[in-house]
Amino acid sequence: MHKLGLVRDIDLALHLPLRYEDETRIVKLSDAREGDTAQIEGLVTSCEVKIAGHRQLLVTLDDGSDTCMLRFFSFYPTQQKALAVGNRIRARGEIKGGFAGLTMMHPAFQAAGGDLPSALTPVYPTVAGLPQAYLRRAVQGGLARAELADTVSPENLYEIGLQPSWNLREALSFLHHPTPDVALATLVDHSHPAWQRLKFEELLAQQLSQLQAKRARARLRAPVLTPVRPEPVEGPQQPAWPLHEQLLAALPFQLTAAQRRVSAEIARDLARPLPMHRLLQGDVGSGKTVVAALAAAICIDADWQCALMAPTEILATQHFAKLVSWLEPLGVKTAWLTGKQKAKERREMLALIASGEAGLVIGTHAVIQDKVVFKNLALAIIDEQHRFGVAQRLALRSKLNDNGQEPHLLMMTATPIPRTLAMSYYADLDVSTIDELPPGRTPVITKVVNDARRDEVIARIRAQLDEGRQIYWVCPLIEESEALDLRNATETHAHLSAALPGVRVGLLHSRMPVAEKRAVMAQFTSGQMGVLVSTTVIEVGVDVPNASLMVIEHAERFGLSQLHQLRGRVGRGAAASACVLLYATGDAPRLGETARARLKAMAETNDGFEIARRDLEIRGPGEFLGARQSGAALLRFADLATDTALLAWARRLAPLMLDQHPALAEKHVQRWLGGKAEFLKA
Ligand code: ADP
Ligand code: MG
Fold first, then answer.
1. Rounded CA gap, 127 and 143, in Å?
2. What confidence category does residue 423 fall into, taking pLDDT thresholds of 50, 70 and 90?
3. How many helices (H) and strands (E) does the chain have?
């Protein structure tokens, strides 16, 4: 029972059947069809033990309309006795046809006669060692005991224009024991009004808990970050501009309209005394880094510290290089933290951070370690937020423990969250979207190519190199591992080096020492290296505009959003760019269904939002939720793809309910989420 999460009465009440069996009727054998699960009643006309290969008990049952053979391969003497000739028996099982006429293998049976139940019999999901009969009794008990009084007030339902025909208790009772006249299809596809009610309640719980979290956050305090406007200065000196304006002026490009819009949204949040909780989403290459830099500038200008955390060493290095080049000329001191740092360097960095001398701190997970003490952290930026867990986000936020204040939080992601997910799981988050790419980008042309045509791809690489372009070649694994038939990065590197004489082919993989990785990246970035063979370490954040071709080997092994992120590494300059998705089918004649759907999506669109939508279709919501998913916080009953109308009702009802019936709202959340509510709020 514990394994199934059946602890409280409400858990039992919410443990819904997988399917139902109809024991409400006795079927006449002449009406029974092969494949039906049926209940029959009749007279035993023969009962014998035969050895035909196996020892078995063969019983003939005659119900007047036809006969059926009951076949048992294992049986106790008592059962044999109960099935003696002349007894009247009720048996239930799947009817099979065939040579010997109708048969049932190992049917459940009992003496004929007795009451027939008035409802369908539930069959519950179970685990080994937990028999249906026991589970049925337990669920029945749980359902009877569970407190299922309606939490939603009829007036509120009326207010939002929803008049459900079932309340929760009715809906649950029905779903456990539906009457036999129900259209079974509506139970299977969950469109029955009882299911609708249940799904609505579940979505409502989720909305309420997120809204509670949002309101709780609104009660917290955060430092007000507004640019310090210096007094106008008399005389020949230059007036000091706010730092972020200086940064804007120094940038070699103009912000796009979308970047300006999201920057303004962020600046507005930072100027308020409550913690920002904002997700900045923008397709790969849409220019999120500069938006982060502008936010950092506002923070540092107000004399507070800003921390930027990235999931990988490479990505953190890239951010560091970029932000230092932008901000250091303006007098900002930046500290650097990574797990692989030398002790001495780290001590120096920690001192800079503790004294407040470093206005900006950039690093990997090392940023949230206990030893890192900020003087006054006011803005925490997390890049590729889905790569971090709830605990890590909380740890970063707890770095400002100053009279109850919390730092502002800006999370960035290149995997746009589909709208339905944004409305449900991320309802407590403000979202800013960069929906336009910087000018001058050329759309990447994507080709899906069988690995057998690898030589043609190499010829294409040669042509690109002749035009002075650079190439990424991405491999999924770095070493021949287990039985996986993967061409690994080292092997491919050797192969390409041989096939492209006179060309510098570099290798980058995650097990290389950091210094070596940096050296390779530097050579590629500076253009000295023509081809970079790498594992997915370049997945995020690498920026080499001269790279115009990306080959992804074993593309069928990558997830859709991963492929999209990888592809975003090309098409950053003015040159026409291409992405080649090499696939191999191994021993199979063709690619599997989902792999094919992924590659097709990649070839058909460059739009990150469209990709995310298809990804949701192919995979379901799990992956988008990142670490949230691990708390088993996923919806059990509602399906975001199909229940959008119910979700919209729940969104309308949640604020009304919290305002007018806060106690009922809390009761509702507890009923549905129990201990998980806290987790969802993080
Ligand atoms: P991402 O959103 O994927 O993190 P980056 O911030 O790395 O994208 O930006 C991609 C590239 O585009 C960088 O080289 C960046 O300097 C450049 N860039 C950003 N904004 C603009 C802009 N408005 N005009 C031109 N180039 C820009
Ligand atoms: Mg980025």
1. 20
2. low
3. 23, 21
Distance in Å, CA 11 to ligand 1 centroid: 49
Per residue in 348-387, pLDDT tens?
A: 999 999 999 999 999 999 998 888 999 999 999 999 877 7
Q: What is the amino acid identity at position 576? A: A
Give the whole-angstrom CA distance, residue 269 versus residue 133. 57
Burial of 73 per CB tally in 10 Å (0-12, 13-18, 19+): exposed
Position 35, amino acid: G
Ligand 1 atom 17 nearest Cα: 287
Structure tokens at 256: 């796009």
CB atoms inside a 10 Å sphere around CB 467: 8
- The confidence band for 5, taking pLDDT boundaries of 50, 70 and 90, is confident
Residue closest by Cα to atom 9 of ligand 1? 287
pLDDT tens digits along 294-352 = 999 999 999 999 999 998 887 888 889 899 999 999 999 999 999 888 999 999 999 99
The torsion defined by the Cα of 297, 300, 305 and 310, in degrees rounded to 10, comes to 10
Taken in order of first residue, the domains within the chain and their CATH numbers are 25-116 (2.40.50.140), 243-434 (3.40.50.300), 444-605 (3.40.50.300)
| pTM of the shown model | 0.70
Whole-number Å distance, alpha carbon 318 to ligand 2 midpoint, is 9
Residues with CB under 6 A from ligand 1: 253-256, 259, 282, 284-290, 414, 438, 543, 572
Mutate to test the pocket of ligand 1, among 259, 261, 289 (most ligand atoms within 8 A of CB): 289
Q: pLDDT confidence of 531, banded at 50, 70, 90?
A: very high
Q: How far is CA 491 from CA 456, 499, 502, 539, in A?
A: 18, 12, 18, 20
